[in-house]
């Protein structure tokens, strides 16, 4: 009984700790680095760490942009996770790292800050037209370690006409949500970030825009992913019965052996 009591809450605590770390490294630390007056203390990374002026502001901006990139990549390497969310996060981190060195302001900054969602949305749409929807790529990557019979089960399922249509529709919905997120983010940044790049005001405005948009943008991405997954999984369940899961190849293979498609 004591073992049950102590281990039961362990997973929620771990999950909560992970979410807290995500928020600290992708939101709170970057905002702190960009702040010209951290919590009213008068401390500024730009002034106190990097010497102030344009150079200090630029270095603070780059550091704030690269902290989330480094955190996501280190997290992926340490945990060796291969999941759709991990793939998505890793790709986003690489795009963010590359764009950190594009020093722009005004509408160009708003576009730059929205580029990840735009690229994901466009790539998702194109993937459907070339006949290999983005969600199929997600599943294929997550199943790299699957056994041959499990790989064959996935191929069989994705060859089913109903499932193929659901894959395309789900990917389109995911793309639409990403593009809506990009549009919202663009206009929020266009309204908030109005100062010239390399100034204290610019960094402060970037911090404000991040505080406003980071969580809603993440929520929108998860909603898009969730709707797409639900549509695809509904199609799989309708064709192969309850228990057939595209992200559980072993379970899917077993289900296909038991139940022919509807």
3D structure, described in words:
Keywords: Membrane, Transmembrane, Transmembrane helix. This is MFS transporter. The chain crosses the membrane at residues 20-38, 58-78, 85-104, 116-135, 166-188, 211-232. It comes from Deinococcus yavapaiensis KR-236. The chain is mainly alpha-helical and 262 residues long. It has one domain (2-258). Helices cover 79% and strands 0% of the residues. The longest helix is centred in the C-terminal third of the chain and has 41 residues, at 200-240. The radius of gyration is 22 Å and the shape is elongated.
Topology record:
Layout: H1 2-7, H2 10-34, H3 45-49, H4 53-79, H5 84-99, H6 106-129, H7 134-142, H8 148-159, H9 161-192, H10 200-240, H11 249-258
Helix pairs in contact: 2-4, 2-10, 4-5, 5-6, 6-9, 8-11, 9-10
Transmembrane segments: 20-38, 58-78, 85-104, 116-135, 166-188, 211-232
Keywords: Membrane, Transmembrane, Transmembrane helix
Protein name: MFS transporter
